[in-house]
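Example (one chain per record):
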Amino acid sequence: MKWKLEDSSRCQHAELLKKYVSLFPESLSTILDCLERVGPVFFQKTLEDLCKFDAPIKLTEDRARFMSNLLEYRQNMLLNTLEQ
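Predicted structure:
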């Protein structure tokens, strides 16, 4: 995603969030609050529930664990970026 339509390069999620907060500093506490409300236990429980769905292609426990690790990594990356 680009920050501005005329930008030649794309921004990563953390970079976009940092730019947003620099424009709207009052949003920082709300964003941090949202990021801190959820964590590994929430991710694991939610994905565990999704593994129980009877779907044509089921979410496996290994895949759910992988997804949980990615979500936790992304959350930590965003928190670290915003707290700098």
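Caption: Residues 13-82 form one domain.
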